[in-house]
Amino acid sequence: MEEIHRKKYITRKSYQAKYTFVIVCAVLVAAAAVMAAVYRDLTAAYPEAAADIFQWEKYFTRLGVIIVLALLLGLFLSHKIIGPVLRLSSALTRINKGDFKVRIKLRSGDEFLRLGDEINVLAAKLESLSKEKPEIKDKFKES
């Protein structure tokens, strides 16, 4: 029984970059909205002290830290989404080619794990069926 493990941290960089970009943009939009609301409220309440209150170099430094944290969060979350999907896809491709010994091992306790377990059950049934009727495996190899 062969298990599929993820060999790389970042795979299919286009997918991971896409999800990371979406998460980073969402965090930046939220940070900009909060910053704009605070600025508007402070300048309305204290118009003469607004220049002293807002020291822009501090805010740009904080914005840089937020961008770095958002990027790390985006990489982490996209890794959690893309990893199981790629392992499931790889296993199904191998099963379709007639390799019924393949098994999937997923780390998370979400719906991906349930789906992985169902694919493992399917592969085990196909493996036992192919032992009873070897022509089944040949049909998978033809397609």
How would you characterize the overall build of this protein?
The chain has one domain (2-142). The protein is built from five helices and two strands; from the N terminus they run E-H-H-H-E-H-H. With 143 residues, the protein is mostly helical. It is rod-shaped, with a radius of gyration of 25 Å. Helices cover 76% and strands 4% of the residues.
Q: How many domains would you count in the coordinates?
A: 1
The biggest sheet, with number of strands, parallel, antiparallel or mixed sense and barrel status, is: 2 strands, parallel
Strand order of the largest sheet: 1-2
Helical percentage = over 70%
What Rg, in angstroms, do the CA atoms define?
A: 25 Å
Distance between the termini: 23 Å
Q: What do the pLDDT scores average to?
A: 78
Count of DSSP helices?
A: 5
Protein structure class: mainly alpha
Dominant shape: rod-shaped
Q: Give the H and E element order.
A: EHHHEHH
Low-pLDDT runs of 5+ residues are none
Content of β-strand: under 5%
Number of strands: 2
Entry keywords:
143 residues; two-stranded parallel sheet; rod-shaped; 5 helices
What's the structural blueprint in terms of helices and strands?
Blueprint: E1 2-4, H1 13-45, H2 50-53, H3 56-96, E2 102-104, H4 111-132, H5 135-142
Compact overview of the structure:
The protein is mainly α. It is built from 5 helices and 2 strands; from the N terminus they run βαααβαα.
